[in-house]
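Box S2. Input/output pair 1.
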Amino acid sequence: MTRIISGRAGSMRLATPAGSGTRPTSDRVREALFSRLEHLEVLIGARVVDLYAGSGALGLEAASRGASTVLLVESDKAAAKVTKQNAGALGIPGITVRHATVQRVLSVGPPEPQTLVFLDPPYELGEDALAADLGALVDQQWLDPEALVVVERSSRSPEPAWPQELELEGERRYGETKIWFAGPRTPDVVA
């Protein structure tokens, strides 16, 4: 069972796509992740994009905890349908679901820079494809200067290949899951 952990929609059950190849983030991992995000004070009023959304659990959790806008991107038709149903059941304004590939969505800049980005791709997505997604976030100006980028992968995966405009800010391991946190690189101050 996947559910919203906390916030306005706390304890609400989420449907999960059957047979779509999605891999929902466990409640335990989401609880730890969102505890960290609350500690960092990045959720209230956040502009969120959840790439490879699956059921939408990460983006919908952010909405439940105070994000102002959430864009859920899912390419699998069945998964996108479930994501739309979950978003509708949540009943929180500001949530949009896009049935499209991540690459297509990222090829055009956002209406405004995002403050929190989740990338939780299928484990079979190659490292080069993930690096291209991260590069597109920078190249198409998806990121607010204070943005936080969260990448979730198998604990056996290597650290993502960050574009030079992003720098690693931390990582956590939860059993078979590893999460990396990155943000825009602070320009060097020249005296």
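Box S3. Input/output pair 2.
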Amino acid sequence: MRAVSHLERKAAALLLLTLALIVGAALYLLYARGAFEPTQSLVLTSDDSEGVTVGMDMTFSGFPIGRVSKLELAPDGNVRILVAVPRKDAHWLRESSVFTLVKGLVGGTTIKAYSGMLQDPPLHDGAERPVLRGDATAEIPQMVAMAKELLNNLSLMTARDSPLGQSLEQVRLLGQKLNGDSGAMEVLLGTPENARKTVEMLDRANQLLARMDRVVQRTDQQVFDADGLMPQLRTTVQTLNLVLADTRTSLRKLDAVLANAEGISANVQEASTDIGQLRNEVESNLRKVEDLLTELQRKWPFAKDGKVELP
């Protein structure tokens, strides 16, 4: 077997090269993580640091702008969380910035910074700020107690003897009554007997209205038809007016004859004959008037008993 020349030197060079690569990788990793970047310190104080570890990021709007470099316990019992913030990202922190420490149900603890007023003065190096802590898991017992109380109240509400159960039972009975024979009438009147009586009363009222309608129609026919009372009464009145006109004419003739009887005493016999004829005509006309009035009173349903006396 042929021996390799300078084997020890080559092995040492390889070891040195490997060591240099390892050191270079470590330095690159430190550089990539900002180990050689200038930073400023920020101290966050809290009464509990559970879930906080060295190397944890502090985020602003979801981007890491700082890293926890140290945890220590203060003399007053609070926890001091030292955060290293790169100077290139320090301008996001202002005097009015708010810091929170949130422990969620899913995932680990997170430290977040909120700067609502970016016009405020920047936060100085070494500033100490309190951190607002929010633990979602701490609300679980209270939420469980509230859920249990809610379920108990729901069980009491849905029980058969509960007010809600009784109300639902009343609604069910109301639905049964509405679907019954009487329907809403029974709901309004209370009992089926009252509903039946009301329906019967309405039927009787409808029958009475129908009868009244027929009576009105019959009365209208008897009074206002062509053969009814009103046309006959109109004809009778016209006839009576004619008879009265004849009577008026006869009376005027009688007045003239009486005047002639007073002026001419020589023709007494002739005047007496004329007076007798005129009296007969007047009596005839008055009898016609009496017959017409009798017929009018017989046809007029609201007329009272009356008599016409002759002079």
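Caption for Box S3: The mean pLDDT is 77. Strands lie at 39-46, 57-60, 63-73, 79-86, 98-103, 109-114, 127-135.
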